[in-house]
Design brief:
The structure is a homodimer of 115-residue chains. Chain A is an alpha+beta fold and 115 residues long. Chain A has two helices and five strands, in the order H-E-E-E-H-E-E. Chain A is 20% helix and 23% strand.
C-alpha cells in the first residue's frame, strides 16, 4: 500500500462507500465522475502505479481484473447489451490516478474512436 | 480455432502480413482501420468469442494480453507518452469481430469519455 494513494485508501476501506465488489486481490467501486450509466473502476488491492510498472509476476492478477470486470458486468445486467473496458497508461491516455484501474462502462452505446 | 473466424486465420498466419508480435499464446497485428497513429490489436491465439465467454481457466491468458500490450507499447516508444487499451464486449460497445481483441492506441492525445 502507498500511503498517499487514494485508490489504496479505497481498497483498504478507509474512504469511500461500500465497494461494488471486493475480495483479497481486487476492489471495484463506482467512478465519481461517471461517463456512462454504469461506470465502475476495478483495481488491484496491491499498489501498482501503472501498467508500465506491472511485472510478469502480476500476470494472474491482471487477468483477474478482466474476469472480475466481466462478472460485475453480468451482475449489473450488461453482459448481453455490452460494455467497454478501458485502461489508461500515461499522460496522452489521460491517466490521472497512478494506481492501475480498469474502467468498466456500460448502459449506453459507446462511440468509436474510443476517445 | 474457429474455421470462419478472421482473427483465427490471422493468428494461424493464413491471412494478413507479418504480425507485430506473436508467440504460442498471443498474436498482435495492426488494425486495418486505425484510430490513432499506433493502433494494434492483441488477441489470444485460442478462439474465445468475447470476454463473456472467458472462463476462470483463461485468467493467465487474459493477463498475458495486458502484459503483451504493455511490452508492445514500450517497443513502439509509447511507454512514456502513454497509451490506451480498450476491450469491447457486445453490441453497445461496438464489438464487431467475435474473437477477443484488445485495442492498443497511442501516438496522440486520447479524449475523455472513451467513446
Amino acid at each position: 500500500m502507498s500511503n498517499d494513494c487514494i485508490f489504496c485508501k479505497i481498497a483498504a476501506g478507509e474512504i469511500g462507500g461500500p465497494p461494488v465488489y471486493q475480495d483479497e486481490e481486487v476492489t471495484a467501486f463506482r467512478d465519481i465522475n461517471p461517463q456512462a450509466p454504469h461506470h465502475i473502476l476495478v483495481i488491484p488491492n496491491e499498489h501498482i502505479s501503472s501498467l508500465n510498472e506491472a511485472a510478469d509476476g502480476h500476470q494472474a492478477l491482471l487477468g483477474k481484473l478482466l474476469l472480475t470486470a466481466a462478472k460485475i458486468a453480468a451482475d449489473q445486467g450488461l453482459a448481453e447489451t455490452g460494455y467497454r473496458l478501458v485502461l489508461n497508461t500515461g499522460p496522452q491516455a489521460g491517466q490521472t490516478v497512478f494506481h492501475i484501474h480498469l474502467h468498466l462502462l456500460g448502459g449506453r452505446r459507446m462511440a468509436w474512436p474510443p476517445g
